[in-house]
Design goal:
56% helix; 673 residues; elongated; five-stranded antiparallel beta sheet; four-stranded antiparallel beta sheet; alpha+beta; 26 helices
Length: 673
């Protein structure tokens, strides 16, 4: 008999240990599982107590306590199963009333079993010392005991139904943990049936013994569940559907595994009977960019076949163990033609480059590259959150898809920049397209914030300029324009400088704006590139920035300057050059600031440059700025009439001003009139 106590004692200890481990998980499911394990331990202990009783009263007492613990175990098992299977019972409106009703039934059964100790209303007992069962006080059921039996079997049936429903409602690879739990429940029910019916003569109720020893299995099944078979299947599915060709070589250098994308590229891999070595595969694939199979490498491969994309980025990785020993090689091939940004679904930069190179190879000149960016998106993120900011980025991408030609190549670059490549497109047409996109963006802007779209353009007319160069030029043009866009955070630098300049000099905001507008109009008439137009607009605003370092007594002097004062005044071009050179945003116009007081005849300053030695943008600003000064009042002179200003420009044409620029400029202002 001692062995009975040992086995049931071990089962109880096992249940208690895993109850403690489970409670330590500190989550809702672990609480219900822990309750179930504690109830299992109590059932094992009380059943063992029944075996050793020697009196009628103790048999009645221990049996009643045993059945009470069994009620608690079944109720705890049901609560655990509901939580484990995430049954809709947990979400229904009257859940608490259902649990209250079940607890009430347990309470009623407990009362009956306690009363039964003193008044046999459910069970009576017979002592049989010759019985084959370990328990000599065998109970005899009375009609009232059917309440207990019915309650237990009802809850057991609900548990089975919940597990079966869960098994059929989840994918097969995820159903193992529920299937294992169902098998455990059915196994216990079969053991109980065999013991009760006596179909097989067993001296003890093995089902009770199983309660405790099942606890570690249930613990593993719910809280330490790794599901290796499921994970292996999932990994295989991921490899098959990842959309990226992959091949794995073992440590001996033979093909160990591939996915469908790789087999589509190289049908020879479908031959399961042939063992293909890495060297044979490399020769078949003709990976010319792969230098060695002993080091990690990234290279491009051009697909000569009709299957798959034309260009792939290949990542070759040597796999090592913890002791740096070779365990294999992995080759992953990214399709550069279809790689897309997750947020906007635009192509990645790599995909953009490969598609644009194809257009270049086809000779689709002129090719226009546009880079755009949303001003004020940081403010939207701060005020409304990243979700709204991402929505505005997607809006930009959608507008580009809707407004640009169908053959346009669209991509998302870094820092929220987006690019468009347009074959056989001139700059003027691209400007109209993106001005329309800008208008549509403003109409759809429902944030109430002052956000805008800015863009820069670069045109490729022959092979002397590459796609990468065009992207940099367009991005630079866009960044320059952002300095002058009040909705951009980058405009704060320009605002600060222009404010300082207007406070230091008699320059007015109106003069600056007029000069900028007229300079851009003249630049367009001269068919300058978008990048040059952006620099020209910025130069028109800041060409006299060096004057902030000139004393006010000289700047604001109403009369003629002395020779010494004039020498100080002339230094403003060099001072402006140094100010612009010190700023990353203004470096592009520093040289033009330095030379904007040079003369066509070589008598200007500071370099005494002549003719076309003077940078074109400097020559443009000289004409435009001088004309605006002529036709507006200044402290040192009254405004000229337009006719007088025209005569003055013609008189100084070829000496102070570039004669060609004067001719074009006069045509521009005459067309305006």
């Amino acid at each position: 008999m001692i062995w009975y106590y040992i086995w049931y004692g071990l089962a109880a200890v096992c249940a208690v240990i895993y109850a403690v481990k489970t409670y330590k998980q500190k989550n809702r499911l672990s609480v219900f599982a822990g309750n179930m394990f504690v109830a299992a331990a109590l059932v094992n202990i009380t059943y063992a107590a029944r075996i050793g009783v020697r009196s009628y009263f103790m048999a009645s007492l221990c049996t009643s306590i045993y059945f009470v613990c069994l009620d608690l175990l079944v109720l705890a098992a049901l609560q655990f199963t509901v939580e484990f299977t995430e049954s809709k019972i947990t979400a229904i409106k009257y859940k608490k009333y259902i649990y209250l009703f079940l607890n009430l039934l347990v309470f009623v059964d407990v009362i009956f079993l306690i009363v039964n100790i003193f008044n046999e209303i459910e069970l009576r007992y017979q002592y049989n010392m010759y019985s084959s069962y370990a328990i000599k006080y065998i109970y005899v059921e009375k009609p009232a005991f059917r309440f207990h039996i019915g309650f237990v079997y009802l809850l057991a049936a609900v548990i089975v139904c919940l597990l079966i429903k869960k098994i059929y409602s989840v994918p097969k690879i995820y159903s193992a943990r529920y299937r294992n739990s169902l098998i455990a429940v059915l196994f216990i029910m079969v053991l109980t049936f065999v013991y009760i019916t006596g179909r097989i003569k067993i001296s003890i109720d093995l089902a009770v013994l199983v309660y405790g020893f099942l606890c570690p299995i249930i613990y593993w099944n719910i809280l330490d569940y790794t599901s290796k078979g499921m994970l292996n299947t999932t990994r295989k599915m991921i490899l098959e559907y990842m959309g990226t060709p992959m091949i794995l070589f073992d440590y001996e250098g033979y093909v160990a595994d591939t996915n469908q994308d790789m087999r589509n590229l190289f049908p020879i891999l479908n031959n399961q009977e042939r063992k293909i070595s890495m060297m044979d595969f490399m020769q078949i694939a003709s990976f010319k960019g792969l230098q060695s199979t002993a080091t990690d490498q990234v290279f491009e491969w051009c697909n000569p076949n009709d299957t798959g994309a034309k260009v792939y980025q290949c990542n070759f990785t040597c796999l090592k163990d913890e002791k740096d020993r070779n365990i294999g090689q992995l080759l992953i091939m990214k399709n550069l033609e279809v790689e897309r940004d997750m947020l906007t679904q635009l192509y990645s930069k790599e995909s953009f480059m490969s598609r644009m190179e194809a257009i270049v190879n086809q000779g689709g000149y002129p090719i226009t590259v546009v880079v755009c960016n949303t001003n004020g998106i940081g403010l939207v993120n701060d005020v409304f959150g990243w979700t709204k900011g991402n929505e505005m980025l997607r809006l930009t991408a959608d507008l580009m898809r809707e407004s640009l030609p169908k053959n346009a190549v669209l991509a998302r670059l870094k820092d929220g920049d987006m690019a468009a490549g347009l074959a056989e497109t001139e700059q003027e047409y691209a400007v109209r397209l993106f001005e329309n996109i800008r208008d549509q963006y403003q109409k759809h802007n429902d944030t109430g914030t002052n956000t805008d779209l800015e863009y820069g353009i670069a045109v490729i007319r022959d092979g002397s300029k590459g796609i990468e160069d065009a992207l940099k030029e367009a991005e630079g043009s866009m960044r320059t324009k952002k300095l002058m866009n009040e909705t951009s955070q980058k405009s704060s630098l320009l605002d600060s400088l222009t404010q300082t300049l207007t406070e230091s000099d008699y320059e007015t905001e109106e003069h600056v704006e007029r000069t900028k507008e007229m300079a851009v109009r003249l630049g367009r008439a001269l068919k300058l590139s978008d990048a040059e137009l952006g620099k020209l607009a910025l130069l028109a605003v800041l060409h006299d920035i060096g004057k902030i370092a000139i004393p006010h007594t000289i700047l604001l002097k109403p009369g003629k300057l002395t020779e010494e004062e004039w020498e100080i005044m002339k230094t403003h071009t060099e001072k402006g050059y140094r100010i612009a050179s010190a700023s990353k945003e203004l470096q592009s116009i520093a040289e033009y600031i330095l030379h904007h007081h040079e003369r066509w005849d070589g008598n200007g300053y500071p370099g005494a440059l002549a003719g076309e030695e003077i940078p074109l943008l400097s020559r443009i600003i000289t004409v435009v700025d001088s004309h605006d000064v002529m036709v507006h009042d200044r402290p040192y002179h009254k405004a000229m009439s337009k006719e007088q200003a025209t005569e003055e420009l013609l008189r100084c044409s070829g000496t102070q001003f570039d004669p060609h620029l004067v001719t074009v400029f006069l045509k521009v202002i005459n067309d305006e009139a």
